[in-house]
Amino acid sequence: MTPEHHTILSGIAPVDERVGGLEAGGSYLIVGAPGPEKLVAALQFLHTGVQNGERCALVTNADVEGILDVASAWGFDMRDAWDDGTLQIVGLKDDFELRAMRSIAPEEVVEELAAVLSPDLSRIAVDPGMMFLAGGTKTLLGSSYMSWARAQNATVVTTFSVDGGAAWLPSSADWLIHATTARLVLEKRTDGLYRLTVSPSVPMPGKREETISLDLRPGGGLVRPENFPARRGGDRGGVDENRLLLLSLGEHDSADLEAWATQSFEADVVTEPFEAVTRVQSDAKYGGVLIHTPGRRSPEAIKACRAIRPLTRAAIVLASDDAVRATDRIQVLEAGADDFLSGGVDFRELGLRIRQAIARGANPAMSGQRKGTVVPPLVPEDSKGGRVPMDTFRAEVRKRAREVDSAFFCILVVESSTLPPEDLRRALSKPIRTEHGDIVSGTDGHSLVLLQGARVSQLGPFLGRLRTRLDEQVESGDAGVEIEVLSHPVDSDRIAEILESSGEQAD
Asked: What is the CATH number that goes with domain 7-223?
């Protein structure tokens, strides 16, 4: 990164007016749901550069003619820049992402990219960034790419697509927050406009988060909406953005969290959901509500969120000490929370996320009865939970694997050298969550546990508690437990092999 830290124009006029442009030599992530707006922002950034006579590059999986046509349609004609070499377009082959992921040395892929780019570039745009970042999970390829981007003298923007209607980074991509200079998060609003949140990775005086409304127009790109008042997203009448209600259900670091909240906000602290409901009913000034909970009290926290949501315009953020399952995250968002953090609390990130949520404004709770809204079930409606015979377990796995909304789960293959199979499965049945569709079964050879919505990266604390519970079942304190963790759909072949080896023997 250049040492002088001067700024350059992003090409999006309202952004340049509000935040002063982008930091030269910085690395930026343009985040949003699938759609054209991320590419448009990247093209707008490059077009501004070539208009100023800067040398620029676009790394893309599209063909040159196609991307130039797209740029022209949005109002950014860069054919002359391409012809005279001011704009370099590096087109990657269709199978690039797959080859990169399978490479024995992924960092060499980034080195090859660096070798084909001109050394005197001022701006680089990479679209789609998923070619390197693979869904946001921290990989050797992704880390190598972000290290390369930060090391450039050029300003680098990378587009990052998130699934569904959400526009914010998934929890697996949290590492990208501090791997970039800032994130430009684009969300489509219900009125057809876009909300762009410029979120610095490290807020400081003069570099705070800003929320800007934009329109996306053919021939113009991302522009200021016509007849739209210039105002911040947090300007909601009667709401004080510095007022926070903390519902503290946590057990670890509760005192520290309460001290931080009262120092960072004008905060009121309660420890019971009923108290929180009473407070928001009697005080409409809260800008935010923070619910802090350990994993075991997450159902209680979700109920509290659902009760608070219709009573206040405040943004609601839920923070859990423990890593949680996707099913918990879905339920929290359905209950009306505006953001959700899990796996421990970093106060700096927590403060940033709360202020981001307040600036965006509160989201309504989702309901299947809302017009045009259908909330999918966590598992197929006729699915079973709890302890089941082996043939039912096998049928449930196959049924859920066929459904998009229930196809993500983990299976634990558990064996014990000391516990009889019946005792083992009885112990395994106690910590599972039947209301989420968790099931237990097995044969004399091994016991099987299906954890609906769980991912391997989230299971560390659960597996630790499970081993402790099983060891407590024997006098020696060591149940001799071996656990193989399989994730569907990644390990679908191994799962099929396990089910086949289980034969037709019932639990």
From this structure: 3.40.50.300
